[in-house]
Amino acid sequence: MPAVSIVDTRLANIASILAAMERLGLDARIVDAPAQIASADRLILPGVGSFGAAMERLRALGVVDALRERIESDRPTLCVCLGMQLLFESSEESPGVEGLSVVPGAIRRFRSPPRRTHFGWSAVTLGDERTIVQPGYAYFAHSYCATDAPADWSTSRAAFGEPFIASIQRGTTLACQFHPELSGAWGLSLLARWAGVQAPLTTQTLLAESDA
């Protein structure tokens, strides 16, 4: 059974991720050191809050290079919500702050919606078939988004007044703008596929019933 390590960004609801890992029968621990990040079987980079504050925390921990090297070497990594945005070069939320720069491009604020913060459930559709994400409904909580990704990253998409990227995947690195740990049976099933374990029977039953 794989062990899961969760980066202590201090800017995330880690309790909900720990609860999801427990439901999947996985051992999870909180980590904050470069060696722990480099050696983790599977790593989750969570995040809620501001791009600049999150990068400041990662730099203070001295884990930026370890995170970059892990993703570039295709070690199983899951980035959630702000964690996905941190993969990009920059964000309009924090001008002048450099992200992890694993993915070229910038995160920008929503332009079109009558309100600028996307809270709630939205449909997720596939950009291509190379991702473990499946069509369904996910829970989102964000004001900034990515609209483009390079061709070597597979994508899924959603919309909130305008289309945006819901997830990107390259190899064993999956980054989700949504919160899979808060996305019900659909999200738990996705976490199980990423972790390489079987989803709980109750989750499989719910998904089967929804497809019937």
Please characterize this protein's 3D structure.
- The chain is an alpha/beta fold and 212 residues long.
- 30% of the residues lie in helices and 30% in strands.
- The protein contains seven helices and twelve strands.
- The strands form two sheets. A nine-stranded mixed sheet has the order 2-1-3-4-12-11-10-7-8. Strands 5-6-9 form a three-stranded mixed sheet, with no helix packed on it.
- Helix 6 packs across helix 7 (201-211).
- The chain is globular and about 45 Å long.
- The model has no long low-confidence stretch (mean pLDDT 93).
What is the strand and helix layout of this fold?
Blueprint (H helix, E strand, L loop, with lengths): L3 E4 L6 H10 L4 E4 L2 H6 L2 E4 L5 H11 L2 H9 L4 E4 L1 H4 L2 E4 L11 E7 L8 E9 L9 E7 L1 E2 L8 E6 L3 E8 L2 E4 L7 H12 L5 H11 L1
Parallel strand pairs: 1-2, 1-3, 3-4, 4-12, 5-6
Antiparallel strand pairs: 6-9, 7-8, 7-10, 10-11, 11-12
Strand/helix succession: EHEHEHHEHEEEEEEEEHH
Identify the strand order in the major beta sheet.
2-1-3-4-12-11-10-7-8
**Biggest sheet features:** 9 strands, mixed
Mean pLDDT rating: 93
**Percent of residues in β-strands:** 25-35%
Secondary-structure-based class equals alpha/beta
| Helix fraction bin | 25-40%
Number of strands: 12
Total number of helices:
7
Tell me the distance between the termini.
31 Å
The global form is: globular
Radius of gyration of CA atoms, rounded to a whole number: 16 Å
Query: Runs with pLDDT <50, length 5+?
Result: none
